[in-house]
Amino acid sequence: MRTIQNVQAMRAWSREARKEGARIALVPTMGGLHAGHLSLVEIARRHADRVVASVFVNPTQFDRDDDFAGYPRDLARDQRLLAEAGIDVVFAPKPAAVYPEGAVTFVDVEDLSVLLCGAHRPGHFRGVATVVTKLFTIIEPDVGVFGEKDYQQLAIIRRLVRDLCLAVEIVGAPIVREADGLAMSSRNTHLDTPGRAAAVCLSRALLAAETLVADGEHDGATIEAAARAAIEAEPLAKLEYASLVDAEALVPVTTMIDRGVLALAVWVGKTRLIDNQMLVAKAASAERRSA
Ligand code: PAF
Q: Which is the catalytic residue, given 37, 47, 124, 218?
């Protein structure tokens, strides 16, 4: 496994691999790797001959300085895990290589970026869309693999690939959970013991909503209220939002006809956690089973 820090060297490696007929997959990360990231690598390996993982804590997507400063950084550990996972290249550029002095060009996926997390984290998705576009233009992958835990991010990246006519296939990877249901996240390391126990309220809230929908509930407000109640029952948790939205447009779903995504953002102490669940209406799931 090679580690490349230089933009030109990364591009040269990709072009050489492509000349040899290899299909390249990219797994973009900000490091702080966990089993969720390694599952993305596993999926990437099924879609390509060579896999590149980027490790870059992208400064432009942080809306709080303390979050950026405290983001886990341990490149040696990430390299070891990626080598064990069978990665070909770790691309770990320095910020100045990605954002040259005086850079003023950004990518903004306008409508999707102001909803859900975007309403609470101004500029976050502009930073994500910009860095992902840069990674795509530097590495020129055939496939990009992104986790479904960041559901809005995945929707935004699919949209930017479509809008900018990029030749990258986007593959979404299922959420990986701890045994008690907590979705894996680099930020889970910030939770203390009571916070870690409290954080299970997110998956509990999703389960409460899913159970309601399985029993035939279609009303968006009632489904959201069930999730909200599960979060509010946890004294250490503070709900930012619980929203049932359309799976592509991310706009609110008032009556669930077919399916919707229930998206949550919750603060546990100083740690902001997100999670989501695709909910399928009772009639739609019965139809799918009989088809
Ligand atoms: O999901 C992440 O870790 C980041 O938002 C990404 C896609 C690597 C861009 O910095």
A: 37
Q: Does any ligand 1 atom lie closer than 6 A to the CB of residue 78?
A: no
CATH code: domain 186-290 is 3.30.1300.10
The span from the CA of 58 to the CA of 92, in Å, is: 11
- Domain-wise residue ranges, the chain: 2-173, 186-290
Q: Is 190 a catalytic residue?
A: no
Span 4-50, pLDDT tens digits: 999 999 999 999 999 999 999 999 999 999 999 999 999 999 999 99
**Buried b vs exposed e over 233-271: b needs ≥16 C-beta within 10 Å?**
ebebbebbbbbbbeeeebeebeebeebbbbbbbbebeeb
- The model carries a pTM of 0.96
pLDDT at 288 over 90: no
User: Is ligand 1 within 6 A of the CB of residue 188?
Assistant: no
CATH superfamily of 2-173: HUPs (3.40.50.620)
* Helix 282-290 / helix 201-214 crossing angle, nearest 10 deg: 70
Please count the other Cβ atoms lying within 10 Å of the Cβ belonging to residue 61. 21
